[in-house]
Amino acid sequence: MSLTNFTAGTGGLGNPVAEAKSDSIKTRFLSAAILAPIALALVWIGGWYFTGLILVAGVLMVGEWDRLCGGSGRGLHVWLLSAAVVAVSFFSATAQWDLLFPVAAAGVLLALIANRKDQPKWTALGGLYILLPMIALLWLRDDAQWGLITIVWMLVAVWATDTGAYFAGKSIGGPKMAPRISPNKTWAGLVGGVVAAAFVSVLTGKIAGAGSLQNLAMFGGLAAVVGQIGDVCESSVKRHFGVKDSGNIIPGHGGLFDRLDSLLFVALVIAGLNLAAGEAVLWQ
Question: Which of 113, 142, 171 is the last residue of a domain?
Answer without folding.
Answer: 142
